[in-house]
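Marked as duplicate of an earlier ticket. Keeping the data here for the record.
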Amino acid sequence: MSFNPYVPRPIDLPTDVPLSQHASLVDLDEAKIFAAPDDPADWPAWRARLAAWRADARARLGYTGAHYDEVAGDCFTVCLAWLWDETLYDHDRGVFTVDAFLDAAGRDFGGFDGVVLWHAYPVIGLDDRNQFDWYRDVPELPEVVRAFQDRGVRVFVDYNPWDTGTRRSPGTDAAEVAELAAKLGVDGVFLDTLKEGAGALRAALDEVRPGLVLEGESRVPLARIEDHAMSWAQWFADSTVPGVLRAKYFERRHMLHHTRRWHRDHLDELHSAWLNGVGVLVWESVFGVWVGWNARDRAVLRAMRRVQASHAAWLRSEDWEPLADHPGTGQVYASRWTHDDAPLWTVVNRGGDHDGPWLVTSRPGRYVDLVTGAPLTVTALDDGRFAVGGPLPAGAIAAVVVTSSSVERHEQPTGDPSFPARVAVRTRTPWALRSEVPAGLVAVSSGVHDLVVRHRVRETGLYGETPYVDEWKPLPPRLHHLATLQRTVRLGRFAIATHEVTHGEYAEFLRATGYAPVRAERFTAGQGPADAPVTGVDLADARAYAAWAGLRLPTEDEWQVAASAGLLERREPLVWNLTESEHTDGRTRFVILKGGAAYQAQGSDWYFDGGPQPADVSVKLLLTGAGLTRSDQVGFRCAADL
């Protein structure tokens, strides 16, 4: 491996600003963050060079900012939510729970301004459904969008440009995205893997409704700030002295969302967001992997959101001075935002516990920290200025205003900084005891087995593990490579069906029981060729059949042991086999598939695995709702305990 995944790549590092009056500033166009000088004596020159770059860049581009006049409000905190997160969708009842989801967000984070409803990856490629099908096949999704919007939360869908190997829709991608946005009534589109979505996509969205937002996953090109009102600040490394986000400095109304998806400490992101007047992305379940926020970071964000709500106009003001009014020493830094001649200082402590001045300013008055509501100590200096400050714990934030009014008091935003780990718990395997081997099944002796499981390393992991911890952007060879997992398992004596259940057998079950699933979408079991493996089933459908037959599904370990012994046969067409391996961490449900399938999506490593697979290969399938887990590439076989 030629890179260290635990340090920023060169492309992630901040860009130095040349302080010489004669140096070219054009290279700053490509920056993520403008690095700040270490010496406070250089900061005035640094600010002057930033202002010169901004004026020149705006003139070169003929920048107008007219698009921002069409975009309503601010969107500081956005949650990227798996559409089938267990806090958003009740899998047992088959209904969305938007109010409960947002109530929890209010308690934990102070609420969300926006939500990206992530829908297809890492499941897309299971069959030929394209990215738009995974949205369109959720009939109540327009109502879900409206439920968020009724609570003041903007909704974004995501667009996967790499999806070129599934079935093709009749229109262009731009036309399909626009049609989807119109049907769902969303507020914008998140551009997966893209920095920009200009040209045809921008034009198509403008035809739907002015003000629809495009938000890229990475550094937005300077020319696209004009028509991309938001962007991710993903894997942006800051300077030791906090720097300035290029896109925000160029257009004060541009909203960035800081995110480092695999990190367990978000204080650096929160500090940069606070000093730059931008937002963060809350992403606690990354493609089925729990990377939840710790209690301290949640508390800091809740405090930030109170001030963002009351002082949004300040944080988009043209009158912004980074690294303002520094006392000359120490690691307490501030940005000053002035609106209607009233200043607001956003303050961070990048060092240890501090008790002393935070600011030195010429403005007299009563100073208060809006984060805690506490009045601050104001000391007159010999030069006529005033030192403002007090105690500020390590890592803390503050929001300073001059006011004679009373301010609501709050506790200092603190909490446990340790990672709030979750365990993916396996659902209990039902007991299906038979005194003899049922017809069509074959016996397997009890014993201890040292299994070697092979899998492709994807962002979703295989079981409950986190594939990347505190890493910057995962890249090959640490992504999409083949890996092995050692599993020592003790199996009792069991029997397993030599073949998958057929459509004909499932039709007999339906006639006998009148079984009806909670959600009937895509339920086609029993409707195919009688001797073909049954498909169009989800885990509940398969379990219902097995229980009626006095059987159960095999675990993934039982399946692998039997297949490795040559006991299993495969019907045509080849379909993945569901196993009794459901896990949940309270946010994501998943199951292990075995055996491979006839279908294999081509053209991207992001697709779900496909094609025939040997017995030792396992694949993790995130369970969706509204019948979307049902696929023409997934069936099952049965097992029994002996």
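See parent ticket for discussion. The radius of gyration is 28 Å.
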